[in-house]
Amino acid sequence: MSPNMQFNSYANFSELSASLVKQWLDVIKHSSDNGDQASFALAGGSTPAPIYRQLDLMLADRGSSNIRLTATDERWVNDADPQSNEGLFKQCLPLSYRKQWNLVSLKNSANTPEVAIEAINERLQQQLPERFDAVLLGMGADGHIASLFPNAPLQHDGLACIAAVHPQSHQTRISLSLPRLMNTAKIWLVITGAEKRQVLEAALSKDLPISSLLKQAVCNIQVFWCP
């Protein structure tokens, strides 16, 4: 295990979600109390969706907040597509969307991510603080994080984002680069099941995107795991 990694084990996903949401609300409150704008990068997919729904309910009971969210990565599809991470956020956070948080999109009208990355990089620089308050990541069984896949580049020309292609489906995507993901006060890594735990435990001896994150990140990494 990485020396800056804390492993949190839970009996089920409901306990995991409650623990993470409590931490998340504490970060938002701390930023608000200090007059700062909280900012987060969030993973998509079905695993964290219940966490986002729970956060939405909790935010709805609180006062106004000024929160910026961006996706850790996004498929090059419109928001109505079921595979869109940005569409997922809007579905899971309907009570607080545009009231307490604003989305900084990883997409524009360009035909491909390759054409868009310089414009998206400029948007990220203009609309997000230099450092995230927290980055919420998932991890694939192949050790990928965001859309940073094994045997593929993890960064590009110093930009905050990178064009990516899924190795099996060949679907085009855009992802925050590894350096941008690591420019954060903390990382929350959410994984479930024995297989992914084994991948994580072996990561420091491998050459995988998750390995690079664990070896290079200087911030606190909290792992939230349940069977």
Write up what this structure looks like.
With 227 residues, the protein is an alpha/beta fold. The chain has one domain (5-226): Rossmann fold, CATH 3.40.50. The protein has seven helices and ten strands. It has helices at residues 13-33, 49-60, 85-92, 113-127, 178-182, 194-201, 209-216, and strands at residues 5-9, 38-42, 67-71, 73-75, 101-103, 134-137, 161-165, 172-176, 186-192, 220-226. The strands form two sheets. A seven-stranded parallel sheet has the order 1-10-9-6-2-3-5, sandwiched between helices. Strands 4-8-7 form a three-stranded antiparallel sheet. Helix 2 (49-60) links the parallel strand 2 (38-42) and strand 3. The chain starts with a strand and ends with a strand.
Key descriptive features of the protein:
10 strands, 227 residues, 7 helices, 7-stranded parallel beta sheet, Rossmann fold, 3-stranded antiparallel beta sheet, alpha/beta
Task: List the topology elements.
Blueprint: E1 5-9, H1 13-33, E2 38-42, H2 49-60, E3 67-71, E4 73-75, H3 85-92, E5 101-103, H4 113-127, E6 134-137, E7 161-165, E8 172-176, H5 178-182, E9 186-192, H6 194-201, H7 209-216, E10 220-226
Parallel strand pairs: 1-10, 2-3, 2-6, 3-5, 6-9, 9-10
Antiparallel strand pairs: 4-8, 7-8
